[in-house]
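Tip: read the tokens left to right.
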């Protein structure tokens, strides 16, 4: 039980830090890619960050198998959470004038909505790779 709580706390920390990665990449890429294209790039950057953090800190321990396969499995699993996240972001952009002008609010709302699903998926993937 304590280990699960520790994992949840670290996963939330990872997500909080990834939120800054997400917003930063969106801020930099938005002038060239727009609010939607920039969000795709920022999500991929944030998902890569969380994979590295969770692999090395949250669910650390011996792993077996290909790192690339684990990464691609993680990204594909996060795709459902990413769709939830992106859909929430896009809905907020459409619904709220404030979010159109400050899309970081949409990023934050989408991240919170998708966090629960992503935790369960990441835990299953990372725990499943232990020797």
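Filled-in amino acids:
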């Amino acid at each position: 039980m304590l280990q699960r709580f520790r994992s949840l706390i670290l996963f939330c920390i990872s997500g909080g830090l990834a939120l800054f990665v997400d917003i930063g990449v969106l801020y930099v890429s938005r002038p060239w890619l727009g609010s939607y294209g920039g969000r795709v790039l920022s999500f991929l950057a944030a998902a890569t960050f969380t994979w590295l953090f969770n692999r090395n800190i949250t669910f650390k321990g011996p792993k077996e198998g290909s790192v690339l396969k684990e990464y691609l499995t993680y990204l594909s699993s996060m795709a459902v959470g990413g769709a939830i996240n992106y859909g929430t972001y896009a809905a907020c952009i459409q619904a709220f004038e404030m979010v159109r002008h400050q899309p970081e609010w949409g990023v934050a709302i989408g991240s919170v909505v998708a966090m629960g699903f992503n935790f369960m998926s990441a835990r299953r993937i990372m725990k499943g790779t232990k020797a």
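Residues 2-58 form the longest helix (57 residues). The chain has four helices and no strands.
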